[in-house]
Amino acid sequence: MFKPKKPRLHLEIQTHRKNPIGVIRSTFRNDGKVVHETHGRITGMGLPQLKLIQAAFRNEVVPVGSADALQTVGSKEFGGAAALLKLVRDLGLDKVLYSRKEPWVGLVLAMVTGRLLYQGSKLSLVNRWKDTALWELAGIDGRPDVEKHCYESMDRLLDSQARVQKKLAAKHMAGGEVVLYDITSSYLEGEYEESELADYGYSRDGKKSRKQIVIGLACNREGCPVAVEVFSGDTKDESTVMDKIRQLQQDLGLERIIFVGDRGMVTASNYEKIRGVGGVDTITALTHREILGLLETKDVQLELFDQRQPVEVEDPRHPGRRLVLCLNPDSAAKETATRQALMDKTREALERIAHGCTLRSTSDKTIGERLGRVFEKYGMGKFVETWTEDIQVGKQQKPGKILRWGFKQEKIDLEQATDGCYVIASDVPGETMGAEETVATYKSLGQVEQAFRNLKTASLELRPIYHKTDDRIRAHAFLCMLAYYLQWHLEQRLAPLFEGDGEYKQRRWSLEMALERLMSIRRKKVVLNGVEFDHVDTPDPEQQQILDLLGVTL
Questions:
Q1: Kind and range of the H or E element at 147?
Q2: Distance (Å, whole) CA 234 – CA 237
Q3: H-only helix segments in 194-281
Q4: What is the pTM of this model?
Q5: In the chain, where are the structural domains located?
Q6: CATH 1.10.530 applies to domain 163-284+433-491
Q7: N or C: which end of the chain has fewer CB within 10 A?
Q8: Which tens digit of pLDDT belongs to each residue from 7-50?
Q9: Using CA atoms, how far apart are residues 220 and 480, in angstroms rounded to an integer?
Q10: Three-state DSSP class for 194?
Q11: 118 in helix, strand or coil?
């Protein structure tokens, strides 16, 4: 008896649509006619994957070791770049840069993301195009051109800086907020003869022989950066304050501001100017000299400094301004020990100078020069009283001078009594912000210092700067600020990972380690049975935990 063959299933790939689909069919004869029957469709896959499924339907099994077996013909870092770019879009930073999708925005975001992953120069990031999928994800096939894809995009970014910072302020300082403000310096490499920004000044990097720029950074109370500005390298701290306040009000649209700056920012003269500006309150700290002045005039007594809780008094010089007196016993012990060590070194140096005077004829000028070097080195000149006496030196009994000196013990005792004492000054009303909150808000300036450490060291490598035009220097600083903006949000989302970490030798996690784990997820170009396709590593449980905390999928 004739038994008809069962119809064989096959996969028909249809490519005439926008996205290819696979149609599962069987073909057989019925009364001499060829009949096609559809059993289902496969969607959501690329053409290479559909071709592999088609080969499986045909029973085209590839023997292990054959020329058509599975081969990896390329591999690039994928996980870090893809995760951070998706985080950027989840944060809405792409829309902050520009409301529409434009090529330069994607390229800027690639440089922002690349600064977290790889640091280094723009050219070094371009040269990684064979090692990372970052540029492909930004829409660039092949090697990017540093001038076209990096520098021209930076120019567009700089043109948008004021608008972007206004959007960031509206997002993170809605209705006016606490503004943490500080400045730092960053040195430059090479010659800058035509630059108005490059100049010599007080170098916080210890590079006195290099020209530098000064960078001002404004953050909200949590330390999230919202605005950056570049000043000439010889700019003093206090000279940036009034312009910054005007920028915060006019350019960023903040009606009311609580401006938090350190002792070098809100100086006595600056404070008088700020009082004349409407909508601005300040929080700062008094200098040590100002604290001693209050003690000398008896406006404040040492007994009011209490380590258990801050004590609030009214500023006798500025009615309506509150002074919050604080004492930190740990700082007191450190300051006392440091001063004693410096005084011991000063004593040894003075004894050497005095002994040298007895061996050879020495003039007042020579002694003065030696004293100047000692006091400059140890900073203890204010505690030392010196004078000289005439003596006869050597066998020839030549006329000379000998150094006499002594410590000003009363001044030392007063200084030691104020060790650990600090005073926070604020004109924010007490009903708006209590004493403890005022102190905590001033201490949050440490977050700006942390931002500078991240910007200037291995995390983001803002320095050294090689750009030769002032606009490119400004664009570079803004790009680095946006990279820190991304890093700040990255750390917020990964906080549970860090908080659940061990201690000391058992400690495992850092931001760098989390990024390294993501960067070990690679995208490979694979060839199987003559079909070429991309394959992304499946995240292991640890990598998946990081992706889940970031709220992104690859």
A1: none
A2: 10
A3: 241-246, 268-275
A4: 0.81
A5: 9-61, 163-284+433-491, 331-417
A6: no
A7: N
A8: 677 888 888 777 888 888 888 777 778 777 887 788 887 887 78
A9: 17
A10: coil
A11: coil
